[in-house]
Amino acid sequence: MTSTATSTDESINQFNNTSTVLLDNLPHTTGLLYYFKHKRISDYIFALFALSAAFYWLIVNTNINIYDQSILVGVTLSSVALGWAWRPLQVLMAAVALLSVWAVHLYAGQLNNAEQVFLLKYVLNSQRTIAFMGISFVLSLCAYWLGLLAYKPRALWTGTALSWIAIGFGFLGLMMRWHESHLLGADIGHIPVSNLYEVFILFALLTAAFYLYYEDKYQTRALGGFVMLVVVAAVVFLFWYSIDRQAHEIAPLVPALQSWWMKIHVPANFIGYGTFSMSAMVAFAYLVKYYAEQTQHKSWNRVIPLFILGVLLLIAPVIFRKNIDTLALVWWLTYFGVSSLIVGGILLARRRIAQVLPAFEVLDDIMYKSIAVGFAFFTVATILGALWAADAWGTYWQWDPKETWALIVWLNYAAWLHLRFIKGMRGVIASYWALVGLLITSFAFLGVNMWLSGLHSYGAL
After folding, report:
1. What is the number of alpha carbons within 13 Å of residue 219 lying toward its C-beta?
2. Dihedral pair phi/psi, residue 296, rounded to 5°
3. What is the per-residue pLDDT for 7?
4. 3-state DSSP of the chain
5. Are the beta carbons of 397 and 403 closer than 8 angstroms?
6. How many CB atoms lie within 10 A of CB 448?
7. pLDDT for 220-255, tens place per residue?
């Protein structure tokens, strides 16, 4: 009897071992089974929760058209895949989904509940959550720089935590804005990526999210202060735009934007903008470290080009404005002064900051990978834009100013990547090019709409 039991146990063990070997060596045609086999139970719980939240959202918002429904399903599935690939996202996405469902429940189909229900009025409506996003980003910037200048790791950790909180508030704000737009009416409801106010929120969120990914991958928080500079610059512009122009008000889409192409073209574009911005800030950090460690470069004339570029990047919304009144002039002169003090202070403290920054090789690698990711998504966005143009205007390309400058941006980063691959371009030249590249991108995003009239001139400053 014992011999039989032993034989059975050996057979079971042999079967288990054989099964493991077979599963671990599945051919590519069955790779999907291998992929799902190696997921944790928590991954499946997260996926089930995300799908349930999306299903509830569709049930409540009955007037969402088929295109928006498809986008929601696609975003949910993509979020699950991203959460599985990078598990820190799971907590963020689950929190955003839970709070979104809770807020939708509190609205109960009535927009005026935003003024009557305590949590909606003071916490969960779109304007409150977006304000909390901005405040969290500003506090994150302060914490990062405290950690950099005072060598306090705990402050750097606080900066990271506040960045995660800001991203959570931002995505929750976009979800609430989407729901509120549908509560206003079926002809008003739209995915919140349709105007300058909404895309600036998206820009800040995507830039910060990509930074946190690289922060986690390279295990360094020293770049947070640099990347958050451009994020907070966007937030400051966003708040001015909201106060001065009441841009936060939800309005129906203009006919040209009532297209499902817009819903996929714009996010792809802003993944490109976000990663290009991040690469420029990393390039700025590279140059700060370079000038700090080159002891022969002590005079200010060596860093004047970097100072000018840094200030220009932070005040890009100012220099691209076409019309400005006296009050706005005072506002922007103050903004210019603060930006100059920040960039100047960073350059003055460059030797202290350089001691905390990662090695040149790490900075160069992050800069390259950010541009590579941005270039891929910007290429996709340009193709989608051409398809949208063909659908709307009957032609793929008309050399409209926006199209022309999109091509200039694409060629700029294509040349950057080409020279890196072919000639091994790195270091100071690559960093300055990345900074100038962001200035070109900023003009393509803002300046074209302000200064060059064309088919894409939907926004105004």
Report:
1. 0
2. -75, -15
3. 47
4. CHHHHHHHHHHHHHHHHHHHHHHHCCCHHHHHHHHHHCCCHHHHHHHHHHHHHHHHHHHHCCCCCHHHHHHHHHHHHHHHHHHHHCCHHHHHHHHHHHHHHHHHHHHCCCHHHHHCCHHHHHHHCHHHHHHHHHHHHHHHHHHHHHHHHHCCHHHHHHHHHHHHHHHHHHHHHHHHHHHHHHHHCCCCCCCCCCCHHHHHHHHHHHHHHHHHHHHHHHCCCCCHHHHHHHHHHHHHHHHHHHHHHCCCCCCCCCHHHCCHHHHHHHHHHHHHHHHHHHHHHHHHHHHHHHHHHCCCCCCHHHCHHHHHHHHHHHCHHHHCCCCCCHHHHHHHHHHHHHHHHHHHHHHHCHHHHHCCCCCHHHHHHHHHHHHHHHHHHHHHHHHHHHHHHHHHHCCCCCCCHHHHHHHHHHHHHHHHHHHHHHHCCCHHHHHHHHHHHHHHHHHHHHHHHHHCCCCCCCCCC
5. yes
6. 21
7. 999 999 999 999 988 988 888 887 777 788 888 777
pLDDT(418) > 90: yes
H/E element, 169: helix 153-184
Which stretches of 294-325 are DSSP H helices?
Answer: 304-314, 316-319
The amino acid at 382:
T
Token pair belonging to 448: 């074209």
Q: At 15, is the pLDDT very low, low, confident or very high (cuts 50, 70, 90)? A: very low
Range from 33-37, 72-76, 258-262 carrying the lowest mean pLDDT: 33-37
Question: Has this prediction a pTM greater than 0.70?
Answer: yes
What are the φ and ψ backbone dihedral angles of 395, each rounded to 5 degrees? -150, 145
Within 10 Å of residue 175's Cβ, how many Cβ atoms? 22
Task: Tell me the C-alpha distance between 51 and 35, whole Å.
Answer: 19
